[in-house]
Amino acid sequence: MMSENANQYAVYGMTKDAAFWAELRRILWAVAAALLAGAAAYLWLGPRGLAAAVVVTSAAAISAGIGERRPSRAVTETPAPADLAVLSPLAREMLERLPDPLMLVNGGDRVLFANGAMREVIGVGVERKHVSAVLRTPSVLEALQRTAHTGEPGSIEFTIRVPIERNYQAFTARISSDPSVVMLLMHDLTAMKRTEQMRVDFIANASHELRTPLAAVTGFIETLKGPARDDAEARDKFLDIMAVEGERMRRLIEDLLSLTRIELNEHVPPRGEVSLEAVVQQASAALTPLAKADGITIVVDVAAGLPPVAGERDELVQLFQNLIHNAIKYGRDNGEVKISLRQQASTGRRGPETLLIAAVTDDGEGIPAEAIPRLTERFYRVDVKRSRERGGTGLGLAIVKHIVNRHNGRLQIESRAGEGSTFTIILPAAKKQADAPVTELL
């Protein structure tokens, strides 16, 4: 009987433990009532009526105490597993497999259920928590409250800005009034929004950055067709300059297209597994001839037993090629570029995880402190002349930033005047390796 009534309490919003103690309190009150009834019977009926009075009164009191009385909603604090009785196993499985994030909230504004897509957005372990603790968007919380009270469905667009900016359209609907259950369904609009923004940005950037080399090429063509038509020396000189400007435009367009593609997919987590050591070795091998031309040595130091990362191989190769190229470009002649790889343990939002730390260090002049926060902006250059002389487009670190964001990583930049700079990439290991033991602690 205790177990059955405890389950009844759970249905009304109490936890299993709370139901147990509530039932125990009722029994104790019933026993006390029986004792008082027995004492009264003894006073009025004497010893002969005591036994009968106690038995009858105790049975009645206990029956009333643990019968069908429902506990008050005022004692409800957290939803119990029994709240999910509104979902059949088939319904749970169906909702779990939906590609769009979905959440069910009870009348106490606590999360009853969140499917896999929703857990990827707000994290794991959210059931039984207050909805405001897991989804901190005022407009969505207001829509949930409005639907819960009025029963009218709602629709609202909102943006989650961390860790990666994502745009959603949220739909709210009350699917049960007793007990009260409100559904929140979110549709990802990020790809559509990014496509619109990429089109605008590409046109603006291309028109701005291509204006100068196009003007130069056009001017040289007019000169060759006019005053320098028969001047062989000038013709060869101008053709060389035009070739350089043409190559600059080619690199600029390639980088713009690459950046556009990466930004468009930035919100989509990569699904493959990649050896970061192999990626770094490939990137450094491709740039070794360029480094040798300046007398620079590339040194790669890799710790043993590194787990793979969840990533897109081509994008990670591009990331490290950009960082190594920058280190060569801004390092000292006959200097050294160091690349180190190691792993560390950390505790993140999703629990313990293994992190891979990749650092690219040069021995150049360093970067002014006030310039570091702006390094990942499009077309930002600390030294414009040197960057253009060495073939830079001003997009390399912007590409690095967006690749790091897509791989759920972090970029750290440290620099000291006259000592060089270190660009550190921190990436999570692939999930199946996340609990592997490591020797260092973050």
List keywords for this structure.
5-stranded mixed β-sheet, elongated, 12 strands, 4 domains, disordered N terminus, Helix Hairpins, alpha+beta, 442 residues, Beta-Lactamase, 5-stranded antiparallel β-sheet
Task: Please explain how this structure is put together.
This protein is α+β, with helices and mostly antiparallel strands. It folds into four domains: 2-73, no CATH class; 81-188, 2-Layer Sandwich (Beta-Lactamase); 190-268, Signal transduction histidine kinase, dimerisation/phosphotransfer (DHp) domain (Helix Hairpins, Orthogonal Bundle), CATH 1.10.287; 270-442, Heat Shock Protein 90, CATH 3.30.565. The protein has helices spanning 2-11, 16-45, 47-65, 89-96, 116-122, 131-134, 138-150, 190-209, 211-225, 232-264, 276-293, 313-330, 384-389, 396-406; strands spanning 102-106, 111-114, 154-160, 166-177, 180-188, 273-274, 297-302, 309-310, 336-348, 351-361, 410-416, 420-428. The strands form three sheets. The protein has a five-stranded antiparallel β-sheet. The protein has a five-stranded mixed β-sheet with strand order 7-9-10-12-11. Helix 9 (211-225) packs antiparallel against helix 10. The two termini are 52 Å apart.
